[in-house]
Amino acid sequence: MAGYLEKHDPADRCTCSYCGIAEDIHLLDGVLDKRGNDTGKLACIACYPNDSWCCGSIKMVKLSIAPSLKPFYDQYVHSEQWNAPMKKPETITTNYLIIETAMATCCVLEDTMLLFGDTLPDDHPYKAAEQQMVQWCEDYGAAGRRSQSWALAPLIESVWSIMKEEDRDGMICWDFEFVPQFLLYCLNFTEGEDIVPVVEGAEKLRDLYYTARERCKAFKSSKPASTRQRDRFIQKCREAAEEQWKYADLISDHPDAVQSAFEANEDPEEFVKALGEELELIDFGPWK
Fold first, then answer.
1. pTM for the whole structure
2. Between the chain's N and C termini, which has fewer beta carbons within 10 Å?
3. 80: burial class by Cβ within 10 Å (0-12, 13-18, 19+)?
């Protein structure tokens, strides 16, 4: 709306008779009763009876517009931009295999955000990779998990299609084994938002997958499986140790103390502070 900033007077805004808020544009919506029936009344969102407001129909919504803004609003409503037809979204061509793979990948990434469940033991060869995956999922959120699941699906499917026939026929479960293991063994979650393969090429990734799978089968841990809660506690302790003492490995160097603190449900920052003071470390952090 050209000229709005030059001509509109902010002092001209209306005051809502429902809540007393002064705004250039105030949204009023029809009020529903407890059964979802229209009461015939209007109320602004600020004083809607509960926090579950949503616009059920554009016919129920009205605008209260400041007088000096009204001409610009009317001009925009009658403009070509307002009345231009919506562009048809680009059609994505794919197949059901890619869609299924994207869905399975997204499920694996979403599962890392659960607050319960077992994780790999601390001495497992892919424990660091598991933690990097979790950190990536936290850093880039649901939108990142969805977009990367879609982007990775063709690569994952291309590797599965050249696996040994007996494995594809049931020796390896596709959704509960192959997809989560492929993410763990064959992808790098430390290069920013875009997840990249550890090596290039479907055949090399297939060989890497088989090698990593056999390595994990042969691995015998001397420690019990960890949990998501414990992993999160340890990660918070490492972050606190780095900030407080510039010594993140303080946590891995004192596993028994960390385990005791976790079982006692201690606060990570307070535990790290007390541990560092007990060891007479040099204070670099906010507690100084």
1. 0.62
2. C
3. exposed
The residue type at 124: H
Instruction: Count the neighbouring beta carbons within 10 Å of the beta carbon of residue 60.
Output: 14
Tokens at 244, concatenated = 């407080």
**Is-contact 252 273, C-beta < 8 A?**
no
User: Is the separation of the CB atoms in 189 and 134 below 8 Å?
Assistant: no
Q: Which residue in the block uniquely carries the two structure tokens 């805004």?
A: 13
44, β-bridge pairs: 28
Residue ranges of the domains in the chain? 4-83, 96-113+122-218, 226-278
What is the C-alpha to C-alpha distance for residues 19 and 218, in angstroms, rounded to an integer?
A: 68
User: How far apart (Å, rounded) are the C-alpha atoms in residues 250 and 238?
Assistant: 7
Asked if the model's pLDDT at residue 55 lies above 60, the reply is: no
Model confidence band, residue 87 (pLDDT cutoffs 50, 70, 90): confident
The token pair that represents 227 in the structure block: 């949990």
